[in-house]
Structures are given as C-alpha cells and as structure tokens.
Amino acid sequence: MLINLNGNLVPKEEAKISVFDHGLLYGDGVFEGIRIYSGNIFKLVEHIDRLYDSAKFINLEIPISKKEMIDEVVKTVSANKLSDGYIRLVVTRGEGDLGLDPKKCKKVTYFIIADKIILYPNEFYKNGLKIITVAIRRNVSEALDPRVKSLNYLNNILAKIEANNAGSLEAIMINQQGYVAEATGDNIFIIKGNNLITPSLFCGVLNGITRATVIDIGKKIKMNVIEQTLTRYDLYTADECFLTGTAAEVIPVVEIDTRKINGGVPGKKTKIIIREFKKFTKKLGVKIKYNS
Ligand code: PMP
After folding, report:
1. Fold type of domain 122-280
2. CA–CA separation, 151 vs 90, rounded Å?
3. What distances in angstroms separate CA 107 from CA 61, 63, 94, 98, 255, one per listed residue?
4. Among 79, 142, 189, 275, which residue has the fewest nearby CB atoms (within 10 Å)?
C-alpha cells in the first residue's frame, strides 16, 4: 500500500509524522472520508470543497490548490489500483511545540490513505439498525460548529461510548435546545407520509455529502423534502427512518429507544432511496484512469 504524505507516495511503513504534530497533540486539523465506487471517486469535488471550507473556518491554509488536491487524491487511488474503497484525506496544522499556539506550526501536513472499507455487516442493511438517543449533547455551534469536519471528534466518540455501553450500534445526538442533531458519524432522516425530513444544518449537523445526495433523490422521486427541527417525538412516531454517511451509505433504522419504526423492518420508501442511491454512486464524481 502506498500512502500520499505531503505529495510523495511512500510505502505504508514509511508514512510517519512527528509526535509534535498538532493534529495529534490537539486534534488541530480537518479531514474527509471519501468513497470509490467502480473506479469513480464519488462526489470528490464536493468533498474537496468541504475540506477547504473546514480548513478556512479553523484558519488553516492548505498549501496546495483544490485542483492540485484533487490530482493528489486521484494519483493515490490510481497508484494503489483501487476500484472500490475508501479514502481518508487528512490535513493537520503540522509540527509545533508543546504549547497549543498554531503560530508555532510552520508547515501544514497532509496525507491521503486509500484502502478497502469495512461496512456494517450486511444483515443490518437488510434488517435495519436498532439505535438509541444518548445523554451527551452535540457540540454547540458557538463553541465548535459541527459543520466543521475537524480532527476533534471526542464529542462524537463520547456518544459512541454511550451507545456501546448500552449494547447499541449507533447513537443519536440531541443538541443543546433538545432538537435531534445527527448520529456519531452519519446524518439522520425520517419519513412521514410523503415527507422526507432531516434536521436543518443549524441544528448542529455536518453538511453531509450523502445527505445532499439523498435530498436530491427525494426530490427526484417526488417526495416533499423538508429541513426542519425534529424532536424525539418525531423520531418515535416516524413511518420510516434511516442514516446516511459516506461509510455507512444509506442504512435503515428499525428501532429507536425501544420504539419500533415501521413494525421493526426497513420501510418501503427507504428501500427505494437505497436503490436510487446505488445508481448515483456510479454517476457522480471523478473517474480514475489506472496506470497499467
Ligand atoms: N455527521 C458526522 C458527524 C460525520 O462524521 C459524517 C461522516 N463524515 C456524516 C455526518 C455524514 O457525512 P457524509 O455523508 O459527507 O459522509
């Protein structure tokens, strides 16, 4: 496996960064997780746009242009001859001293890993997930806006630990106002009648690339797509529910806090959306040319 470290392809064993890197010491950095489907890097441009927006928010200047970053991603996937897989693109503040001042970090670090992906086992796509809401609140936007995909994921990890401790596979996080935000690494949607509803971005959620794709699919199949505030009441009384994310794709939810959704089986409209999503994954993105 070849890793792209600051533009150089190096064997995995040689892909090392300093223990003084502030990405490690302080979670000071940003990242993206991106999928490759049949040689197509799904919505790569949208992921790169979000990466540069996250970097701008934390006042981190990525040393190469978006176009160059796209080329680096393509170069990495092509060198690893991957036609289906997952890319992790990370940009950190770089090496500094033991204080947290980012001014001391003179050179931004970036690296790109292209690897195979481990999914939820197939049975969960077929039978759906049983999930819970957890006590830990989603970060407030005034402290660390959840729209920033930063390396600081402790808020989400604490929620995941609560789910693990309760024997549940995923957690739904509620925001400071009591409204539903998102899962630990996925956005959430509910279906009520012909309405496809997801929490608005101001509820404290990542502007998910899969979320945007599903919104487009909803419009295409003539559902009323609504972004609004949701409470636990809306979740428990939903006709259908599912999560969306680059790694999880579209996965049905069949139980929330012991309340069965759609009688405990994946819903009909959810299945249609999953089918449509699969078609989209081959179409939208940047196609790879592999060096023979
Ligand atoms: N919310 C959070 C907190 C996430 O980490 C992710 C995964 N990146 C998502 C939502 C889903 O976003 P996307 O569809 O862009 O992967």
Report:
1. D-amino Acid Aminotransferase; Chain A, domain 2 (3.20.10)
2. 8
3. 10, 9, 5, 16, 47
4. 142
Q: Catalytic annotation on 12?
A: no
Band (pLDDT 50/70/90 cuts) for residue 189 is: very high
30, 275 Cβ separation under 8 angstroms: no
Q: Do 176 and 135 contact (CB within 8 A), yes or no?
A: no
Q: Of 31, 38, 71, 34, whose CA–CA distance to 52 is shortest? A: 31
Distance of CA 132 to the CA centre of its chain: 19
Report the residue among 49, 86, 186 best suited for mutation to probe ligand 1: largest number of ligand atoms under 8 A from its CB: 186
pTM confidence score: 0.96
Q: Supply the residue whose CA is at minimum distance from atom 9 of ligand 1.
A: 186
- Tell me, in angstroms, the distance from the centre of ligand 1 to residue 291's CA: 31
Token pair 């997801």 is found at 198
Q: Give the span between the Cα atoms of 173 and 284, in whole angstroms.
A: 30
Domain layout of the chain by residue ranges: 2-115, 122-280
Give the model confidence (pLDDT) of 191-239 as tens digits.
999 999 999 999 999 999 999 999 999 999 999 999 999 999 999 999 9
Residue 63: both structure tokens together: 């040393």
Cα(104) to ligand 1 centroid in Å equals 30
| Residue (of 264, 32, 253) closest to 149 by Cα position | 32
Q: How far apart are CA 268 and CA 271, in angstroms?
A: 5
